[in-house]
Amino acid sequence: MLRADLVDPELSGNKYFKLLPNLLGAREQGHHTLLSFGGPWSNHLHALAAAGRRFGFRTIGMVRGEQGGALTACLQDAANNGMRLQFTSRDDYRRKGDTDWQLQLQTQFGPHFLIPEGGSNLAGVLGCRALLPVVHDFSHLMVACGTGTTLSVIGIQVLKGEGYLQQEVAGLLSRHGLQASCRWQVLDDWHGGGYARVTPELLDFMYRFEADTGIPLEPVYSAKLMQALVGLVACDFFPAGARVLVVHGGGLQGRRSLA
Fold first, then answer.
1. pLDDT tens-place string over residues 135-173
2. Which residue segments constitute the domains of the chain, with CATH numbers given?
3. pTM for this one?
4. CA within 13 Å, CB half, 130
C-alpha cells in the first residue's frame, strides 16, 4: 500500500499533488484568491482551505446544497482556515462547469483562480504523476476515484452510475490531449449504494481491517477501495503472481461524518 494519507497532515493524500501545481499556476498568473467546489464533507475544500492559509491565498468554497443548521466538522475546519463558504442550490451547483456561471462568479467575488471540483484540471492530472513511485515491480495499481483525476490503472468508482467514470476519464484524457500510458479500467460495482453511502457491512469491514492492519480508513473512499480489493482477490480477478499496489488517497477527515 502506498500511504499517501501520511504525506501531509492537512493536504491529505492525493490532494497535496493535485493542489500544489494549481497554486503555482495561480501565483504565476498574479491571483490572490482561489475558488472551488465541493460538498459538506469535501476533502478537496478541506485541503484547499488549509493550502490557502499556508501559502497566503484567500479561498472561496462553493458548497453543494443549502445550509441547514451547524456546519459539518469539515466545513468548520475550512472556515477556521479562512475559507469563505458560499452555499448554493443543487441546480446551480450542476452548472459549475458552465462558462456563463463562472463569469457570474467572477462578477460576484472579483478576480480569482478557479479550480474545478476535485482538482480535475490539467494541473491536477499532471500533479498526480508525482504521487506514484517507480512502479515497475507491480503488475496492477488500484485507487479509489470520485472525479477520475488520480486514476491509474484500476479505479474503484465510489459513485453510483454504470459507466459514468469510464466516460469521465476518457473525456479528461481527450480534453487535455493526453495519451493513456497504460491499460486502465474503472470498476463501477463496488460503490455500496452510491457516493458517501455507508452500509453496516462496509463499517464492519472497515473496523476489522483497521484492527488487523493498524491502517486507518474512511467510509467514502479508502474503505470501499480495500473492500473491493479483498473481494477481487476472493474471486480470482488477478492472475497468479500478480503484485498489486493500492493507493491510500487520504481524506481521513471524512471519518468524522460517521458521528
1. 667 888 888 887 666 655 788 888 777 777 778 778 877
2. 8-119 (3.40.50.1100), 132-258 (3.40.50.1100)
3. 0.83
4. 14
